[in-house]
Amino acid sequence: MQLNENQSMIRQMARDFATAKVAPIAHAIDRDGTFPEATVREMGELGFLGLVVPEEYGGVGADITSYALVVEELSRACGSHGLTVAAHNSLGCWPIATFGTEEQKRKYLPPAAAGTSLLSFGLTEAGAGSDAGGTRTTAVRDGDHWVLNGSKMWITNSHYAGALIITAKTDPAATGSRGISAFIVETGTPGFTVEKKEDKLGMRASDTAPLTLVDVRVPHANLLGQEGEGFKYFMKTLDGGRISIAALALGLAEGAFAVARDYTKQREQFGKPIAEFQAVQFMLADMATQIAAARLLTYEACRLKDSGQEYAHMSAMAKLHTSETAMFVTDRAIQCLGGYGYTTEYPVERMYRDAKLCTIGEGTSEIQRLVIGRYALGL
Amino acid sequence: MQFQFNEQQRMIRDMARDFANRVIVPVAAELDATEKFPKDIVRQMGELGLLGMSVNEAYGGAGLDTVCYVAAMEEISRACASCGVIMSVNNSLVCWPLETYGNEDQKKRFLTPLASGQKLGAYCLSEPGAGTDAAAQRTTAKKEGDHWVLNGMKNFITNGANADILIVFAQTDPAIKHKGIRAFIVESTSEGFSVIRKEEKMGIRASDTAQLAFDNVIVPDDQVLGPAESGFKIAMSTLDGGRIGIASQALGISAAAYEASRAYSKQREQFGRAICEFQAVQWKIADMATRLEAARLLTYRAAWAKDQGGRYGEEAAMAKLYASETSHFITNEAVQIFGGNGYSKEYPVERHFRDAKITEIYEGTSEAQRLVISSFELKK
């Protein structure tokens, strides 16, 4: 696999930014649980927040491979930055660019691409996690408006979003995942409340919050795509989103591996660097091999999507394998560093906590296995 | 073979469980969030005899067997792993070597207040450059008249900032390598002793882990533990017992995470039914339960072997290796079963997940346990 010139350039730019601007603040924003507003603004200026937005709507119009490279590079330094960019692009910009009307694209994509207004998707509810079709939030038609009521959970970027795509049941008679529609809801709409930020194991500098909707009036013009097709849109959105979570996990694994490799070369025990012991060499070999496999799966999913082929199974495989690789590699990295790895003095304990999110967000590892199993069985 | 507690062991388990549920469970999340050392809980554990469980009653201990100790450790750690390690260090790493290697005077002066919970102990072996390679001690002890002068630095010392009595290992003669290491009983009130800093850690955040400095600390000759050339042996044999303590800590963390997951899977509904009705979740529960039982049996076998008075180094290393890796596996699966809820601090499995990781590192990493086990096996 080789990168073309454009992809190499974007990757270099992301790497430089991550090294210069993100790495130095990663520890502090994790400790304090602070959303990095300044670097997010800079990412907007660099185009990272409009990677999947076509140029005519103010975006970069980059291919998915380039987008994955940016998420990977950011995540090597800080998983929270990777997640903010991934949720915004994949879950916010992409569905509007793909399913939105011309008017919706003109209104919501340019500020999103510029980074002045973040986007994300609100699907999950307290009772609708893996069973995403179990949406209880309702939308009732009232003239040229829809009235939304309900609540959402674990919604990324909520406090900094100008608008969120919200799924709601529009046909109460429909069973299962049918009768769900998607709406673009501006966060300033009366009755729409972003609740207190969640206190999480990792990704602590990313913004995750529950939402409450009480008689929120949304113009009919903000219905995304067709009425009743919301669940389908969301599933397609997640197919793409999983590529970005794979890229995020890949970056975390690579970041932790680099720290562990450098540490084992300088840490001396029993009179020599621990890298000279076979047991440590084997650990590094397993880490490097898993990362290489994860990288290939991730970029294969990108290639399929970029070339217009079916990619849902590959993005699920990439997400499953890469997130579990990130868990494996960050865990081994802590072992290589011993007691130091368990303290906040080194970044690997943060990467370990961040990696865990990748096995949960945008479909747990268990859900990926369901998707892959159904594909393998032709169901 | 007997796989049952006797009457006394059951009583101790129930007492520890009751105390943990009543006193520790309600504050565990807050202790973790605020990194607050649980002084009051430690005092109460002392009153209940949990800090000197195996110590002879003549020296203020509870005079119980190692199985009782493991049962109590499991219960305390089930509520809060930080409280578990505070207890384990005082029992296994401080009281045990004092009772085993100390003379009558040392036992009266130092063991008695530690075993009865009036004072707290710490074990100081690791240094910045001496982790898995524990023999590479740079802390020095020089004999001057009727006392010793200690200089050096110790790393990752549990209870370090709160301890009254510390067992400190130091090199007295680098020429004879590990044979030059000796163990010293040092009081934290000694001049020249200081806490450099407290570590900020991923888990066991309510236990204090400190870096300590010894700057010309004077230790009287009667506070040297054990004969010449015995220090490294004291350090290693102490860790054999310590590993049983950490295995039981891991066991408690696993039990807590497993039981929370089992209960959650029965009440959480997705796709119109409780998630425990799905095979994928049932398999997780089965794997978690099986590994938990295996870890428990290895840990109690190590405790039993210690109580028989024979060798138990390999049994302890196996118990520690397996129980700690099991706690990693179980807490990770617990977070998966809870999904997004498991990643948030609203449920305790997030804390169990962070706490479990340390059991694979301290008192010998999993890698060090494998070295110990293979060295026993390859001698056969």
Walk me through the structure.
The complex is a heterodimer of chains A (379) and B (380). With 379 residues, chain A is α+β, with helices and mostly antiparallel strands. Helices cover 54% and strands 16% of the residues of chain A. Chain A is built from eleven helices and ten strands. Chain A has a four-stranded mixed beta sheet. In chain A, a hairpin with a 2-residue loop joins strand 9 (268-269) and strand 10. Chain A starts with a helix and ends with a helix. In chain B, strand 2 and strand 3 (147-158) form a beta hairpin. Chain B has helices at residues 7-24, 28-34, 39-47, 66-79, 81-101, 104-115, 231-267, 279-307, 313-338, 340-343, 349-358, 366-378, and strands at 121-124, 140-144, 147-158, 165-171, 181-187, 193-198, 209-220, 224-225, 269-270, 273-274. Chain B is 53% helix and 16% strand. The longest helix of chain B has 37 residues, at 231-267. Chain B is globular. Chain B is α+β, with helices and mostly antiparallel strands. Classes of the chains: A alpha+beta (379), B alpha+beta (380).
Overall 3D shape of chain A: globular
Please indicate the count of domains of chain B.
3
Helix content, binned percent of chain B:
40-55%
Number of strands of chain B: 10
How are the strands ordered across the major sheet of chain B? Answer: 1-4-5-8
Largest sheet of chain A: 4 strands, mixed
Overall helicity of chain A: 40-55%
Q: In the CATH scheme, what's the topology name of the largest domain in chain B?
A: Butyryl-CoA Dehydrogenase, subunit A, domain 3
Mean pLDDT across residues of chain A:
96
Overall mean pLDDT of chain B stands at: 97
Low-confidence stretches of chain B: none
Structural class of chain B: alpha+beta
- Total helical elements of chain A: 11
Radius of gyration of chain B, in Å, reads 21 Å
Q: Name the chain pair whose interface involves the most residues.
A: A-B, 43 and 43 residues
